[in-house]
Specification:
heterodimer, A: Protocatechuate 4,5-dioxygenase, Chain B, eight-stranded mixed β-sheet, 37% helix, B: 366 residues, alpha/beta, Rossmann fold, Protocatechuate 4,5-dioxygenase, Chain A, 2 domains, six-stranded parallel β-sheet
Chain lengths: 288, 366
C-alpha cells in the first residue's frame, strides 16, 4: 500500500514567485525568507516523495463567483498555471496522479465528503508557490500532484473541523491505495494577513508562532476554533490557515517537527513553513 | 389630517381573497385594503389594469406569485402611482422551455377529473416538504382551489404562459421594494429572489423560514411582521425586539457593522453587491480583455454593466471604495496587472495611511 511519509505546511503568497521571477531571491527583503526553506528542500530531496497532495485555495483565478465549490479535487493528467492577469508563468505544468485522485474521490464520497470533480482545471499561485518553495523550479517536476481546492473566499466557507476531518479521510485513502508510492501532504496558505478593509496589513506574529506550535502539538485546539476566530486572530485572508488542518488530519496524532521557519512580512503576510513526520516512523528510522 | 394609504393585495394562480386573510387583518388598522380578483382575466396586462382600477391615487402593491408579476406590471404601467411594492414567492422570467406542456397536463386534468383532482396534484409541491400532510394547512387551500373552476385555471395559465420577461425592467423600479420568499420555496427558489433584490435598486430581501411557496398561509406571522415593518406601520424595533424577530432577516442593511472591526467578510450580501465589479476584474485574466481595458477602460467597464458609482471607483483606482461596493481584492487585484501598483499601496490606501507609515506600523518594516 502507498505510504504517507510527511506533512508539509507553507504560505503561498504570490509575491514569492514574483520575487523569484524577478531575480530578487538574494535581496535583503527576501533572502532570509528563502534561506529558511533550504532545510525543507533538503528534506524533500532526501525523502523523494512520488506524490504531493496539495491543499490550497483558488484566488479568483480558476473559479469565478458563478460557481464556487466548497471542496474540489483535481483528477487531471496535467495542471497548467492559470493566467492571473500577468500572463501564465513560465513554469513546467504539473503532472497529475490521476489514478490516486479518483481513488481519493471515491474514498471521500464513501466517507460523506462530496467534492466537485475536476478533470480539466488550471492552478494558480496557491499550488505553484508551495511546489516551488519545496521543489525549486525544475524543467519537469519530479513529483505528481493531487490538488484539493478549498473555498476560503466566498462565505459560507467550510468549518476548520471539517478540514481536519477531510485530512483523516485522505489518510485512509492513501493507506488503502494499492501502490508503493510515497506521499506527502502539503497544507498551504496564511499565515496572518489581511488584504481588505481598513484593517488591511494586519499581521499577528505571536499568533502565527503559536499556530506553528499547535499545528504539531495541539491540532485539536486549532480544529475547534470557529471561522470568525481565525479571521479575528489571523486576518480575513489568514483564515486560509484552516487548510493546514487537512494536512494535519492526515498525519498521526503524535508527530515530530523536522523543520520550522517563520518570517514576517513576506509582502503583506506572516509567512511560515513546517515539516512534520509521524513519530512512529521517525522512531523506526532512528532505530534502523 | 393624514389620509390612510391604500393597499392592493394581489393573489396568485387559483387563489382568492382567503389567501390574504391573515395579512388583511394585520394591515387593516393601518390602511384601506383592496383585494384583487383575477378569476375572470387571462392576461397579466388585464390583471394589472384591473388592479390599478380598484382605487384612485397612490397605491401600495403587494403581490404573491402570479400576483407579484401583476404588481411589477402595475409599476410599469403606472410608475407614479405605486409608492411601495412587495413581491412574494415569485419570478421575473418569461415562459420556460417545456413549461406549456407541463401546464397543459394540469389543465386537462382539471377539465377531465375536476378541481379536487387538480388540488391534490398541484398543491403538495407548493408547500414545505415537511407539511404536505398537514391537514390544518391543506384543508383551506384545497377548499380554495375547489372554489375555482377549470375555466378559471385555464385562463390564468394562459396569462402565465404569456407573461412578459420583466427582468429588463427591474432596474427601473424606483419605489422601495420588499422581496420576500419562503426558504424552502421549491417553485420559485430563494436564489431567484436574491437576484431580484440585487437588480431592483431600492430592494430589501426577507427570507421566511420554514416555508414553501404558500408563505402567506404557511407562515402568516412572519409575513405579516415583515410587511408591517417594511410599510413603517410598526415603530422601529429596539435591538432586543429585532433579535426576537430572529427569523426575519433583512438584507442590504449597510448600517449593520462587521462583527470584526474594519474586516469585511465576503458574505452573500457583498458577493451579490460586488458581482459586476468582480466579474469585470475576473475578465482581466484574459489577454484580449486586458488589451480592451487598456484601449478604452470606460467601454470595457460598460460591458459588465457597472453602475456610475462602481465605474468611478474603478477609474479613479479607489480601492477602498471598490471594496466597499463589494469588490473582492483577489479579483480587483487584476487591475494592478494592467495598471501596476504594489499590493502594499493598495493596503495602505484602504487603511488610510501613507505607504511608508503602513509598511512601518502595520507590517513592522524598518
Amino acid at each position: 500500500m502507498a505510504k504517507l511519509i510527511g506533512g508539509l505546511g507553507t504560505s503561498h503568497v504570490p509575491s514569492i514567485s514574483a520575487a523569484l521571477d524577478k531575480g530578487l531571491r538574494d535581496t535583503p527583503d527576501w533572502k532570509p525568507f528563502f534561506d529558511g526553506y533550504i532545510p525543507g528542500q533538503d528534506w524533500v530531496r532526501e525523502n523523494k516523495p512520488d506524490v504531493a497532495v496539495v491543499i490550497f485555495n483558488d484566488h479568483g483565478n480558476t473559479f469565478f463567483l458563478d460557481k464556487v465549490p466548497t471542496f474540489a479535487v483535481g483528477c487531471a493528467e496535467e495542471y497548467r498555471p492559470v493566467d492571473e492577469g500577468w500572463g501564465p508563468r513560465a513554469i513546467a505544468p504539473f503532472k497529475g496522479a490521476v489514478d490516486f485522485s479518483w481513488h481519493f474521490i471515491d474514498t471521500l464520497v464513501e466517507n460523506r465528503f462530496d467534492p466537485m470533480i475536476c478533470q480539466e482545471i488550471e492552478v494558480d499561485h496557491g499550488l505553484q508557490v508551495p511546489m516551488e518553495l519545496f521543489w525549486g523550479k525544475p524543467d519537469a517536476w519530479p513529483v505528481k500532484v493531487v490538488p484539493i481546492f478549498v473555498n476560503v473566499i466566498q462565505y459560507p466557507i467550510p468549518l476548520p473541523s471539517r478540514c481536519y476531518e477531510m485530512g483523516r479521510v485522505l489518510r485512509r485513502a492513501i493507506e488503502s491505495y494499492d501502490s508503493d508510492e510515497r506521499f506527502v501532504v502539503v497544507g498551504t496558505g496564511g499565515l496572518s494577513h489581511q488584504l481588505q478593509g481598513a484593517r488591511a496589513g494586519f499581521v499577528n506574529p505571536q499568533a502565527d508562532q503559536a499556530f506553528l506550535n499547535d499545528i504539531a502539538a495541539d491540532p485539536d485546539r486549532l480544529a475547534a476554533m470557529s471561522r470568525e476566530q481565525y479571521v479575528e486572530m489571523f486576518g480575513s485572508e489568514g483564515a486560509e490557515l484552516m487548510m493546514w488542518l487537512v494536512m494535519r488530519g492526515a498525519m498521526d496524532p503524535d508527530v515530530v517537527v523536522r523543520h520550522r521557519h517563520y518570517f514576517v512580512p513576506a509582502s503583506m503576510t506572516g509567512a511560515g513553513m513546517i515539516v512534520l513526520e509521524n513519530r512512529a516512523d521517525a522512531a523506526r528510522a532512528a532505530a534502523a | 389630517m393624514s389620509t390612510r394609504p391604500t393597499i392592493v393585495l394581489l393573489p396568485g394562480l387559483l387563489c382568492d381573497a382567503s389567501i390574504w386573510e391573515a395579512q388583511r387583518a394585520t394591515l387593516a388598522p393601518h390602511a384601506e385594503i383592496r383585494i384583487a380578483d383575477f378569476s375572470q382575466l387571462d392576461s397579466i396586462d388585464a390583471m394589472a389594469r384591473s388592479a390599478l382600477g380598484l382605487a384612485d391615487g397612490p397605491l401600495i402593491a403587494i403581490g404573491h406569485s402570479m400576483g407579484a408579476r401583476v404588481a411589477m406590471e402595475m409599476v410599469r404601467l403606472a410608475p407614479g402611482r405605486i409608492e411601495k411594492l412587495a413581491l412574494i414567492d415569485t419570478g421575473v422570467d418569461s415562459r420556460r422551455d417545456g413549461e406549456a406542456e407541463k401546464r397543459q397536463i394540469l389543465i386537462d386534468l382539471a377539465f377531465a377529473e375536476g378541481m379536487e383532482a387538480l388540488a391534490e396534484r398541484w398543491l403538495p409541491p407548493m408547500l414545505h416538504e415537511g407539511r404536505v400532510g398537514d391537514q390544518a394547512l391543506l384543508a383551506p387551500l384545497k377548499a380554495m382551489v375547489m372554489r375555482a373552476t377549470p375555466e378559471q385555471h385555464h385562463r390564468q395559465i394562459k396569462a402565465l404562459l404569456n407573461r412578459p420577461n420583466v427582468r429588463p425592467h427591474l432596474e427601473a423600479i424606483a419605489c422601495p421594494t420588499l422581496v420576500m420568499v419562503g426558504r424552502q420555496d421549491r417553485w420559485s427558489p430563494l436564489a431567484q429572489h436574491e437576484e431580484m433584490a440585487s437588480l431592483i435598486p431600492n430592494a430589501e430581501l426577507v427570507v421566511i423560514e420554514d416555508s414553501g411557496h404558500m408563505s402567506l398561509l404557511e407562515q402568516p406571522e412572519q409575513v405579516s411582521r415583515a410587511l408591517l415593518r417594511f410599510l413603517g406601520f410598526e415603530k422601529d424595533h429596539s435591538g432586543a425586539d429585532r433579535a426576537a424577530l430572529g427569523e426575519v432577516k433583512p438584507m442590504g442593511d449597510d448600517a449593520v457593522p462587521d462583527r470584526i472591526p474594519d474586516t469585511p467578510l465576503f458574505d452573500r450580501k457583498r458577493s451579490l453587491q460586488g458581482y459586476r465589479i468582480n466579474k469585470m476584474a475576473m475578465g482581466l485574466g484574459n489577454p484580449a480583455n486586458r488589451e480592451a481595458f487598456r484601449e478604452n477602460e470606460s467601454a470595457y467597464l460598460d460591458r459588465f454593466g457597472l453602475t456610475p458609482e462602481e465605474k468611478e471607483a474603478v477609474m479613479t483606482r479607489n480601492w477602498r471604495e471598490m471594496v466597499r461596493l463589494g469588490g473582492n481584492l483577489f479579483f480587483i487585484l487584476k487591475i494592478s496587472a494592467v495598471d501596476p501598483v504594489r499590493i502594499t499601496e493598495i493596503g495602505a490606501h484602504q487603511a488610510g495611511m501613507e505607504h511608508a507609515d503602513f509598511l512601518r506600523d502595520r507590517l513592522g518594516k524598518k
